[in-house]
Amino acid sequence: MIDITLSTPLKNPFGEEFYPEINQHLFLKQSSETVYKAHYVDLFKKDEMLYLVVGTDSGLFYNYVKSQKLPATLKFLFIELNNLNGKLGVEFSDDPTGQQVSVVSADFDFNTLHETFESYVVRNKIQLIRSMAVMDAKPGSPYHQFWDEVEVQYINFLKGNVVGQNAAQFENARLLNAADNVLPLKAYKNTLEGATALVLGGGPTLDDAIDWIKQSQSKLVIFSVARIARRLKKEGIVPDFFVSVDPHDVSFDNSKGIFAFQNQAILLNGYHVNPKLLGQWAGLTCYTGNKYGWKNDDYPRNLDSLGPTVTNTAVNVAAYLGCQNIVLSGLDFCFAKGRTHESSSDEAKVASQLSYKNHIKVEANSGEMTPTEPTFASARSILEQQIGFYLQENPSLRFYSTGLGSAKIENVKYASPESFDFVTTLTTKKLDDLKELLTISSQKRIDYVAKTIDELEKQKQRFNKLEKLGVEALEIMPKLYAENSSDPKQKVLNKVIKLRKKMNHLIGDDGDLLLSYRGANFSETFKPVEDEEALSSDEVSYQLTSFFKGVKSSTEQYQVLIVKAIDRAKLRLDELEGKVTVSDLYERWLKLSELGRADVWLEWHSDVSRLSSSDCDLVKKAQQQFQQELEKTDTTHFHNLKRNTQDISKLLARAERAFGLVNQNELHELLKHAPQLNKANEAADFSALLNGMLAETNQNEQEAEVYYKTINVPILKHSALKRLLDLAMRAERHNDSLSLLENLCVFSLDYMVPYADLLALIGQLQMSAEVLRMYLEKHPIKVNVHIKLAQRLIDLGQVDEARQTLEQVLLMDKDNQTAQILLMNINQ
């Protein structure tokens, strides 16, 4: 928990109190109003938004927002450090429901936003912003850490919300996989009872356990994530199960190494696994999750596909199958050894850890605090909850981790793998028995596919009826109200009600499916209104029309998907029944880019003696083409990874953060990566910047300045000039500082303001005022700079011009309290 210790508050000439531990001296000579109008003017231009504000600025930002005339649909939720409750003139709210401006503690659960601010979440009208305390916070300070923690929670919330409101990527894969997801894992509970499971992830500590895994694999039931298949092949390790759940195309690139094990391993896939991966797997399979998203009593609820990562599913399956000891290896959930993945991975080759912006730390088994990223941290937390649940159900289960650098998980004991002495009985027989259960006859598969086609056809009809009802409703909605009347036409209203009842009947228990498939289709239905108890005719009409549009759009899109799923299922039937020519099948495989179907077809038709030589050649051609695809390493995924670690702006942000935290290890890591940048000038200048930063952290300012002065790449030179300015200011070399500020003005004229402040600091008030005047010629509506100029003129005794400047401010902002107070003071 992050706390902050406060001293005595400071008071400015405008009657405001603030704490220097929170806001330094930001409000000492300017009012909070001046600051906020300069930095947050765009916040109040929106009519509908939920702002989540980290920090209240000693209560000043909260009070400023409260004083504004806000639209009813513009809301602010401040999040503040726990120990400041009641100390800043604001009380924390336990339930912000219905409040336009409220403050909650750091313990706030983002998931409650679904209930308290549902319309904003559904419509994606939500934004996380920094208070001035966060903007000005130095790395490592309480508000800097606080922002990092809240941002991670916010990112995880958004990811979950995106998935929840856009289930299309999962539903698309689910239906395309419908004919291939034959055997639900639910039927095989405890089939490996008493076995010792080894769950393999792709984390860096996998490297340390490889030799032990080679020696011990015969005693273990190995569950491996699919992405490390190539590494296992290279090491001579044969897993019993591969686990894959990701629907995205990148999953195929990551996982295609599994095809080397088709005759040995079982594929345990999520219902929404990438269809290209499942569709070309010729080995045994078993799936998690439900076959359909709609209610279907023919298929009992299956074992869920747990997330957010495939490792969560892998552990869940191992426990469900009855394994007694579950050993985790390569399940790190952190940047163990400073990397994200094991040494042979594409991520390790391009140093992918450098592409992550959000860094939080978790405790490793070694006791050290290790960096991680939001998804890894979330997966660790959820796995900890999973294991707690398993132990409640079966206290005799034991969980172990082989990684000293892996993230620590409650109820998972770290142990060197060499110390394990588990006795596994009858494991081979149990695996053979399970494989026998997963073997499907051709006729059973034919019957299953035919049934699947029938089920999909029925759903196609249902969604077609829903679409027609939506079209009909949209045609009559404009007739619901007569012009200038607030009362609906009864006959039209009755028709609308009847259509809505028909829709509800057809939708049945599947409302969530329709709503979440493409959540954006229904977003306008959730548009907030000022008074839900007294909707106007326009609001009623708008909401109903939005709902009918959502039904029409979603059912149209879903029908397109069902047609594709039916076509795919019919291909399976044609492959199984053998009534279609090989050349026809080949063309269909080629169109789908799934030439691996040839191996599946051969598995289903072992007697190929009746094939013509041309058919045999075509099958071999498909196999060869598929093999070429499997051997391709220059993938889109690899290019994306490499591009992310070539982004100089992201690398610079990491360098500046590491410097602020005096993290020499990360600076050295970036320095090691710099020569790999594609552009030679960026590589040279980034190295120089990093060497300068390292020199500074070693208190060698002169050496640092030498490095900084060699930099020419604009974005890096900007950073170097800021470092040089900081060194000059600390050494009170004011002439150097003024020269550096002049150079910085090339990057932004906003540097003219601190330039003017420095002139004032060294007593050149007239020159300072002149620089501010020059700045205002370019930015005449910058009220805060006009006020600063007025204050400078008052210090110079030029009261008349100061008065004119303040009167000009009031012409632009008639309610500006700062200008009013300053004007009152000079008129006395």
Strand and helix layout:
Blueprint: E1 10-11, E2 17-18, H1 20-23, H2 32-39, E3 49-54, H3 60-66, E4 74-80, E5 101-105, H4 113-116, H5 118-122, E6 126-130, H6 132-135, H7 142-165, H8 168-176, E7 196-200, H9 206-216, E8 221-225, H10 229-235, E9 241-244, H11 249-255, E10 266-270, H12 275-279, E11 284-288, H13 310-320, E12 325-329, H14 346-349, E13 360-363, E14 369-372, H15 374-393, E15 398-401, E16 413-414, H16 427-437, H17 442-476, H18 490-507, H19 511-517, H20 537-577, H21 582-592, H22 597-604, H23 613-631, H24 636-644, H25 648-660, H26 664-673, H27 680-697, H28 701-708, H29 714-730, H30 734-744, H31 752-761, H32 765-778, H33 783-796, H34 799-812, H35 817-827
Parallel strand pairs: 3-4, 3-6, 4-5, 7-8, 7-12, 8-9, 9-10, 10-11, 12-15, 15-16
Antiparallel strand pairs: 1-2, 13-14
**Beta-strand percentage?**
5-15%
Q: Please estimate the helix content.
A: 40-55%
Mean pLDDT: 91
Distance between the termini: 50 Å
Side-by-side strand order of the widest sheet: 11-10-9-8-7-12-15-16
Largest sheet: 8 strands, parallel
Number of extended strands: 16
Please state the overall shape, judged from the principal axes of the Cα atoms.
globular
